[in-house]
Write a structure and sequence with these properties.
Length: about 100
């Protein structure tokens, strides 16, 4: 049809970390399902866990991009995930740990 039958991808176009692709799909589904649950039930105390899982998802995406030699997107995703880890940790501390000191 297009002349691509039986041909494989060139070496520079092949994925270098196919296992990270599966992890990306898994974490994206988990984050979306948890987000929909939070919106439907208005149970916002789960938001810190959702932010943490979103940060893990961004970290996996960043590592995936770095492995596939897309450095700019990789570093941006890693930086965003570090910020997300900081925010989710801070929210967890403020909501759960500081509750005992009131």
């Amino acid at each position: 049809m297009l002349g691509l039958e039986g041909k494989t991808l060139t070496k520079e176009r092949q994925e270098k970390a196919p296992y990270l692709r599966k992890l990306r799909i898994y974490f994206s589904v988990v984050v979306v399902v948890l987000s929909v649950y939070i919106l439907l039930t208005k149970d916002f105390h789960l938001m810190t866990y959702n932010m943490f899982l979103l940060s893990v998802f961004l970290l996996i995406m960043g590592i995936y991009e770095l492995k596939n030699e897309r450095k700019l997107y990789g570093y941006m995703n890693v930086a965003a995930s570090l910020f997300g880890f900081f925010v989710s940790f801070q929210a967890y501390i403020l909501n759960n740990v500081m509750f005992f000191f009131r």
